[in-house]
Structures are given as C-alpha cells and as structure tokens.
Structure prediction request, 289 residues.
Amino acid sequence: MQARIQHFRHAASGTFSYVVHDKDGGTAAVIDPVLDYDGAAGRTGTASVEPLIDYLREHRLRLQWILETHAHADHLSAAPVLKDIMGGQIAIGCGIRNVQETFRGIFNLKDLNTNGVQFDHLFADGETFRIGSLHGEVLNTPGHTSDCISYRIGDAVFVGDTLFAPDKGTARADFPGGSAHDLYRSAQRLLALPDDTRIFLCHDYPPAGRGPEHVHTVKEHLERNVHTGRGIDEETFVDLRKARDITLAMPALLIPAVQVNIRAGKLPAPENNGVSYLKIPIDQLGRSA
Prediction:
C-alpha cells in the first residue's frame, strides 16, 4: 500500500513535520512534531502541533509511532503532547545514548539517565517496523549529529537534517558529536536508493525567489545537490562543510531544545516550587569572538 503523507511547516524554525498513514480509519506515525517555544518569555505552546492532532482526528487515525529523526537543536519536540492526547510510542535512534552522554556533561545534568530510557523505543540500523499495513525501515545516517537516522517507508524516506533542498545542500556537521566525514557517507547512502525515491526534508531555508520545498527525488539530488551531487568526493565535501560551518552561529534555541529533546521532549523535573528550569552553560558552546 502506498503511504499517505501530509506535511506541516513550522515557519519560525523552518521545520517540516509529517503525518504518515495507510488509509482513513487506519494507523499513523508522526515524524518530528514541533512544540512552540518563546525563548524570551520561557513559555511553551501547542498551537503548531494542534493541526497535526486535527488531521489525525479528521482521518480517524490511530497514532502508533511518534518518530524523531534526531535530538533537534533548533526546536523543542512536541512528542509528549501528542502521546498524552493521541497515544503512540516515542522512538529515536539508539545513538541518542551518545548524545545524552555528551550533553549530560555540557549541561551538568546529574539526574539524566543516558541509556535512552526516556524514549519508548530505540531503533537500530536496519531495524524494521510497521505503521498499520505500511512497512518501515531505519537507516543510520549520522553526521549532522551522531544519533541521526532516516525512516524509509515505501518509496519515501524521511531524512531529518542529513539533506536539505538541492540548492541548499546539507545540514551543518559541527555540533558536539557531529562529523563531516560521516555526513558525506550518510548522504551517499541515501543517494544510493532508487532514483525515484522521494526524500522528505525536515528543514528548508529557502533563498530569495522561491518558497519552501519539502520533497525532492534522489535523482534530483544527484543532479543538483550543491554539496553531495555527482562528482563531489568526500574530501571536497569535508573541506566545503568545514569552511561553511565555521561561519554559522549557534541555533537560537539550541540550549533549551537540546535539554528537552534528549529527554524525549519532556521538560526537566520541576523543582520544589513546581517550576521546571533550564540551564545555560557559560562559554561552553559555539566559538569565542
């Protein structure tokens, strides 16, 4: 059965979320849902996840999976909101353990268990799963972060931040645990899929003159991707990626997002006044001036 795919865009972060299902009245997965977060006020909101919930209800769908492609650094996950309202299991790649260990040290999160227990399921490379009548497969695609995975469902593959639109290339690889070499190899793994495979993006930051794009074929990436298309070898890519990454500022929401997302989207445990708090590590992230 062909997967039915509906995309939703969170304009503030340029993030695409997806509902993937087999049929009306059937079973669904949600990929990379976004929780609204006002950094200036430290306030969360659910306006951006409500259209996903409305879609699930309108199409009478049972939510089986809430799939994260990695622990995002540019938005907070709405996975717990969806689970509380619609059910389902929250899943991510087993590489999350390495990410948890890395950021446990950076943020001094003494209460953080780094075995991935915060998630309902940790996927291994090559593991298969079902969304009702649909067959899914997990592809390990590290590089942007060490926990990045892609979900292949029929002729569609949801690649997180591994690839951007062809005219934008790939995501950065300079976060703790990232690797430009790994990112190149992950991109090539995706581009070795059949030419008509549809690659669904997690982000698009369109240049002037075009609107947001969320899907391209493998063939389009091979022919036009400015970072990993045909004729670009690994060393050329690594040099290009490193030169580009050194010019990039840290994402505006990295500090809150990482602390929340390595906990499967849950806020830190409330303190004795009933309020949750996030930490800001001084002089630990990014580069000095």
